[in-house]
Amino acid sequence: MELAITDLRIGRLLVFVWLHTKNDPADEEWEAAFEVMNRSRRREGVPLADMRSLVITDGGAPGGLQRARLGHEFPIKSSVITTVLTNPVKRGIATALSWVNPRFFFAAPKDAMRALEHLDLADQWEGLGAAFLDMQKKLPRNHALELVEQALKSPR
Hints:
- The chain is an alpha/beta fold.
- It has one domain.
- Helix content is about 45%, strand content about 20%.
- The protein contains six helices and five strands; from the N terminus they run E-E-H-E-H-E-H-E-H-H-H.
- A five-stranded mixed β-sheet has the order 1-2-3-4-5, with helices on both faces.
- Helix 1 links the parallel strand 2 and strand 3.
- The longest helix has 18 residues.
- The radius of gyration is 14 Å and the shape is globular.
- The termini are far apart.
């Protein structure tokens, strides 16, 4: 497995929490993730404006078809926290995506609080962090998650 996803209800918000390894997930994993999102959306009956997506990744990402499907089915505020922004090519792609779609915010782990603020979740790390730690049990060690935890535990 290269990704794990779960959903959390936080007040009026339905938050999709994603954890990715360094490898791009296979199509089957994406299909399962879309099923989780669609099932949660039907169950909760939350409008798109009250949905959020928080991704922590060591580099694994959707391909073009998955990105298009996410944008079409779930045009929601999203923050992606990743360790690959040190790569100039990946940083350029992230910058271009955020210019084209201001709903997206990309951050290095040290800027995790800014990513949470983008989603209106600045005071919700405790519950979100617990969900990430639970998902981490199903995947290989995620370096980005460790760095996010360190950044959010350090004094601001």
